[in-house]
Specification:
alpha+beta, 2,3-Dihydroxybiphenyl 1,2-Dioxygenase, domain 1, eight-stranded mixed beta sheet, 3 helices, 18% helix
């Protein structure tokens, strides 16, 4: 049984064709241009390359986006994006939030934060999927077991990086976790996991500590990791 990350799905306003077109299409185009990704699906605004897909539109009409660093509107997850030259990068439509470190923090046109880091790369590409949680080492252990990713690039009490392509990082945060499907604690980003054996993957998820949230299917099954972040199989 193989289980891996297929899509990173960003919430944005839209649960009708009209609102999807207004809310999801512009943000999908933003990331497609930034990352050089191709459009895979127009009906759900899925973009991707040979490593990962990004999906958009998984939110209600009254969806409230993150407002980093406001803890009342937490980011929950974000992308670290490697770029060849940080001084030369242009991000039309994004808002610069912080450039005081060796990396730059932006918000996309809806409000989801992302980081740009200079790296030895020929183009902008996703280097890490970063997950906020109160106990990084514990959550890293869960995902290492869930996805069979034993190698760690960094292992500290406040930040753990699990080797993959892109890597999975876990950073300490005391911000409120999502409580899907409670709209008062919305998910901002979630992971879609693909597998060659759905029944075995579902059993495996439960065995390593996932909590079932919606398991009636038929197309996908929703679980929460130990920190409350939903993911789909």
């Amino acid at each position: 049984m193989k289980l891996g990350i297929q899509n990173v799905v960003f919430a944005c306003p839209g649960n009708t064709p009209e609102s999807y077109d207004h809310g999801a299409r512009p943000i999908a185009r933003f990331y497609a241009e930034l990352l050089g990704m191709r459009v895979i699906r127009e009906d759900w605004f899925l973009i991707g390359d040979d490593r990962l897909n990004l999906g958009f539109g998984d939110g209600p009409i009254d969806y409230q986006p993150p407002r980093w660093p406001d803890p009342a509107y937490p980011q929950q997850m974000h992308l670290d994006i490697a770029v060849p030259d940080l001084a030369q990068v242009e991000v039309p439509g994004a808002t610069l939030l912080d450039d005081s470190q060796a990396w730059q923090v932006y918000a996309d046109p809806i409000g989801h934060p992302f980081c740009l880091r200079e790296s030895a790369t020929d183009r902008a590409k996703i280097a890490r999927i970063v997950i906020d949680c109160p106990e990084p080492q514990a959550l890293a252990t869960f995902y290492s077991a869930l996805l069979d990713l034993p190698e760690r690039e960094l292992d500290s009490p406040d930040r753990v990086v699990v080797a993959d392509s892109p890597a999975l990082a876990f950073q300490r945060s005391d911000a409120a976790a999502p409580r899907w499907p409670d709209p008062a604690y919305p998910q901002q980003v979630h992971l879609d996991l693909s597998t060659d054996d759905v029944p075995a993957a579902r059993d495996h998820a439960l065995a390593v500590g996932a909590q079932p949230l919606q398991t009636t299917g038929p197309d996908h099954y929703v679980y929460a990791d130990p920190a409350g972040h939903p993911f789909c199989i």
